[in-house]
Every structure is written in C-alpha cells, then in structure tokens.
TrEMBL record:
One Pfam family, short name: HSP20
Native source species: Escallonia herrerae
Lineage: Eukaryota, Viridiplantae, Streptophyta, Embryophyta, Tracheophyta
Listed InterPro entries: A-crystallin/Hsp20_dom (IPR002068), HSP20-like_chaperone (IPR008978), Small_HSP (IPR031107)
GO cellular component terms, semicolon-separated: cytoplasm
Name of the protein this chain belongs to: SHSP domain-containing protein
Length: 162
C-alpha cells in the first residue's frame, strides 16, 4: 500500500530513492496561458523560467571590492551581457540556445536549461560603478566592482587648559 497515490505524480513513478526518477509536479501544467504577455507556448515559458531560476550567482564583499561569480557553463563571453543601469543596478543577461534536435534522435532525459536569463543586483552606495571589470573563464563569469575607499574621520587632539 502506497502512502502517496501514483496519480499525485501524474501516474509515473520510479525508484523513490532516486531524486531524478520522479517527474516533478507542475501546478501550472494545465493552466491555459492565453492573451497578453503569457501567450507563449507552455514549454517555451517553462524553459525561460527555468533558465532564469538556474543562473547561480555568488556575491561576496572584500575590503576592496564587491565580487560576483556566475556559473554559465557552455556559454561564450559573446553570449553574455553585463550592464549597469539606473546608476546602481548591475544586470547580467544572456541566452543559452537549445540543442538542435535531429529527426532520428530519441531523448531519454532533458535536464539542462536553455533560453534567456536575467539577474539584477542593486549595488551599494560605495560601489564604483564606472570601474566594473568582467572576466569569463571555464564557464564562470567573474565581475569585480571596486569600492570607494572609506575615509577615516580626521581626529584632532584638543589641548585642555587649566
């Protein structure tokens, strides 16, 4: 007797100990996207959403700079765009193209995301947005945003009379 009905997983169930054997339930699977901005085909919409969600980025702050590292495997630097907009918003965008399908190909699993991606970060006041540096190596985009030097307050000793 199963505690979770197989219909919960769309009638398809594999080994419960293998996280990749179960199809993920999509609550919007049967939702009709009609009209407006959501009039794209369902699979294209899901692909774009997955690409945005799967762009992993780390942001650390060192004494000298803010450093961003984005995992973008399989992308060339020409396929990635880095911009600073509205003064302090760092934007990383690009597109990962879908692999061309041949007529005789039989796919068993498609897990790599494709489509457009876009991530935005509001930079703090101490960021030197006009000096952003970007480098791409082995599918990792590294952005370095230098920080303004913190001016130490000038302390003046006052002699006490008396």
């Amino acid at each position: 007797m199963a505690l979770i009905p197989s219909s919960f997983f769309g009638g398809r169930r594999g080994n419960i100990f293998d996280p990749f054997s179960l199809d993920i339930w999509d609550p919007l699977q049967d939702f009709p996207f009609t009209g407006g901005a959501l009039s794209v085909p369902r699979s294209e919409f899901a692909s774009d959403t997955a690409a945005v969600a799967n762009t992993r980025i780390d942001w650390k702050e060192t004494p000298e700079a803010h450093v961003f590292k984005a995992d973008l495997p399989g992308l060339k630097k020409e396929e990635v765009k880095v911009e600073v907009e509205e003064g302090r918003v760092l934007q990383i965008s690009g597109e990962r193209n879908k692999e061309k399908e041949e007529k005789n190909d039989r796919w068993h699993r498609v897990e790599r995301s494709s489509g457009r991606f876009l991530r935005r970060f509001r930079l703090p006041e101490n960021a030197k947005v006009d000096q952003v540096r970007a480098a791409m190596e082995n599918g990792v985009l590294t952005l370095t945003v230098p920080k303004e030097e913190v001016k130490k307050p000038e302390v003046k000793a006052i002699d006490i009379s008396g």
